[in-house]
Every structure is written in structure tokens, then in C-alpha cells.
Amino acid sequence: MNQGLVPLPGSNNESWCQGLDGLASRCAEYYKQGARFAKWRTVVSIPCGPSALAAKEAAWGLARYAAIAQDNGLVPIVEPEILLDGDHGIERTLEVAEKVWSEVFFYLAQNNVLFEGILLKPSMVTPGADHKEKASPEAIAKYTLTMLRRRVPPAVPGIMFLSGGQSEVEATLNLNAMNQSPNPWHVSFSYARALQNSVLKTWQGRPENVEAAQKALLVRAKANSLAQLGRYTGEGESDEAKKGMFQKGYTY
């Protein structure tokens, strides 16, 4: 639904997400075509501050989009991605995530968005990609669930995590760790790279590799299906699935 990231004047070299102009008519047209869900992604960079301006702009844009989408019969997927870039520790990520999500829900409420009619697509609370120490799945689950419990109302039905450059196995292990105890939401996944990377490398655009690529996709889908039930073990994963996919300044 959004129309891409552009520089945010007056910020610390940060971005804002454009696309509110004409959004209502686009939503109405997509609804006629059969769509029932919409997604809006904006980003927050910890090395850039983040500035109060950038956090507020991200939250306000997401809230206006969500209100417009609901007004046109669509379920808005709300996605403020806190980027992995940086050498900060997990405590700093928690601090920023809590700040961003408090702003997001403040403006969602101000725009009369129905919480029961949205889905969230957050990033997990992890150390920065360049931090000297890796965090265990148990630590990531602890910090991420702490943030969510402090900031996300139980009225929200589902939380579908993005992978954000983690390896396929890391993303699955972390999701599995979050489902080792009951949560007030359905905690699941909405991965791109962590669902598709090994599939694309297997396929390579060649017709003779289609069947093998389909099998690779089924492996990843089954792994993450088990993880959202808390039943994933990580056994039998390939070395390729364990490779990190972080790219500094990643955009799409």
C-alpha cells in the first residue's frame, strides 16, 4: 500500500514512508479486486538516533494508513521495522522498540483504529547486527515478549514477525522460543528472506530445479509452522539455512 521510503527533511538522515495521498481510492479498488488485507512498511534506524521526528512520523503514517484501510474493508498489517543495522546491544533495541510501539498505539487510538481488526508485523528485539555478542533464542524471546506485553494490547489478534536479515534457522528458532509459553496473541511469522532464501538458491530460475525448490519451500514452511506451535527442534537443517542474510542498509 505504501509507495516507498524517501528522505525525511529535518531528521538525522532518516526516512519516512510516502503513500497516504490517494490511499483510500487504492484500498477501495483493491477491495473490489478481492483483497482483504493491506500492508504498510516503514523503518526506524537505531544508529540514526532514532530522532523523535522520525518515530512520530512513522507512527502517524502507520495510524493514518490503518484507519483508511479499515474504512475500506481491509485488515491493515502494521509494520514499523526497527532495522538490524548497528552495533548496539539488545537493551538498546528494547528501549527503542518500546518507544516506537508506544507512539504507534497512541496514534492508532487517536485515529479510532479498531485493534481487533489489525495485525502487527514487528521486528524481533535482537542486538544490532554488528554487536560483538550474539543473543540466544531464549534471550530474544524474553526481550521481545517483554516489549510486546508492555506495549501491545491483548485485543490485537495476531503478531506476524518479520525476519529482517536473520538466517532462516535463527528466525525459526527465535519464533519457536516465543511459543514455549502462552501469549495473549497468536504469535506467528510473515517472513520473506527467511522463507525464500534457500528456495531461490535451489531454483536458480531453471525449470529442472522447480521440484527441488518446491521441496525446499515445504521444508521451510513446515519448520515455521512447527515454530508457531512451539514444536520446532532445528534438527536436520542445512548449512545454507543457517547462513545470515543481513545486508547493511537493506531496502526493497
TrEMBL record:
The GO biological-process annotations, alphabetized, read as:
glycolytic process
Q: What is its EC number?
A: 4.1.2.13
Q: What class of enzyme is it?
A: lyase
- Membrane-spanning intervals of the chain: none
Write down the chemical reaction(s) this protein catalyses.
beta-D-fructose 1,6-bisphosphate = D-glyceraldehyde 3-phosphate + dihydroxyacetone phosphate
**Protein's pathway:** Carbohydrate degradation; glycolysis; D-glyceraldehyde 3-phosphate and glycerone phosphate from D-glucose: step 4/4
| MF (Gene Ontology) | fructose-bisphosphate aldolase activity
Q: What InterPro entries has UniProt attached to this entry?
A: Aldolase_I_AS, Aldolase_TIM, FBA_I
What protein name does the entry list? Fructose-bisphosphate aldolase
Question: Which species is this record about?
Answer: Zea mays (Maize)
